[in-house]
Amino acid sequence: MKSLVLVSMMGMTGIARSGTIAEQIPSVQETQDWKFEASFYGWLTGLNGSTGVGVLTPNIDVSFLDIADDLKMAAALEFEIRHGRWGLITDLFYVKLGASGSTPGPIYDSVEIELQQFIGELSLAYRVIDEPSGFFDVYAGVRYQSLNLDFTGTPGPLAPPGLITSASPDKNWLDPIVGIRGHWNINEKYYIAGKSDIGGFSVGSELTWSVQATLGYRFTENLSVELGYRYLHTDYEDGSFTYDIDQAGIVTSLNFKF
């Protein structure tokens, strides 16, 4: 089975200030100015699970290194606007790729897949704790997913007459999400950041949740980078269509504040 990779781009915010830690993160009481941050992401993730229509539902067990050549296009940006304790966070991600997978049993030998995916998130965040040593936010919002898939199956030795060998489902759904995120300064240059959310609740997906943890480094007051790990689970069904996928891998980001 040829592997599949998804380079997703989802991200974290980092605070980059020079001088002492107390100078790096002014408290909410000290600044009520509008703040902006743009983050560019790379998510080197594999996929594990199954997606398809009816019996044309291949199992996917992928790694980034195995199928980097199958990635045709990827683009993403996260942008945050903050004023006082309140923040508005948006994340836009698009990927296009092709790969192959296998189905259980002898009905199909293999299945070729073309996938286009768009994920858009919009969340309202509230800063519960804001101290020189770090911060803690709660947030709530929505995650929109749009999938365009083309499946082409090669019949196996026990394929019945009239077997469906292709399908092209287009699916769009909206998941409510709630989450938390935090940031802790190790020293003037290094920090740890993390976030987690859960959603779906059978409104869109049956369940979706994610966890991310990164180590950050500040170059200047307005520039930082992060490296870490992210895991995303999505379990969505609509009739005979299934998208039950786990995505996990290394995440990197380049963050600009202004």
How would you characterize this protein structure?
With 258 residues, the protein is mainly β. It has one domain (5-253): Lipocalin (Beta Barrel), CATH 2.40.128.100. It contains one helix and 13 strands; from the N terminus they run βαββββββββββββ. Strands 2-4-5-6-7-9-10-11-12-13 form a ten-stranded antiparallel beta barrel. A hairpin with a 6-residue loop joins β5 and β6. The chain is elongated, with a radius of gyration of 21 Å. The protein starts with a strand and ends with a strand. The model is unreliable at 1-30 (pLDDT under 50).
| Highest-level CATH class | Mainly Beta
CATH architecture heading: Beta Barrel
Give the CATH topology: Lipocalin
> What's the end-to-end separation, in Å?
46 Å
Q: Helix-strand pattern, N to C?
A: EHEEEEEEEEEEEE
Low-confidence stretches: 1-30
Secondary structure tally: strands: 13
Number of helices: 1
Q: How do the strands line up in the largest sheet?
A: 2-4-5-6-7-9-10-11-12-13
CATH superfamily: OPCA outer membrane adhesin/invasin
Keywords:
Lipocalin; disordered N terminus; elongated; 1 helix; 69% strand; 258 residues; mainly beta; 10-stranded antiparallel beta barrel
Outline the secondary-structure elements.
Elements: E1 5-8, H1 21-24, E2 34-53, E3 59-61, E4 71-83, E5 86-101, E6 108-131, E7 134-155, E8 166-167, E9 170-185, E10 190-199, E11 207-220, E12 223-238, E13 241-257
Antiparallel strand pairs: 1-2, 2-3, 2-4, 2-13, 4-5, 5-6, 6-7, 7-8, 7-9, 9-10, 10-11, 11-12, 12-13
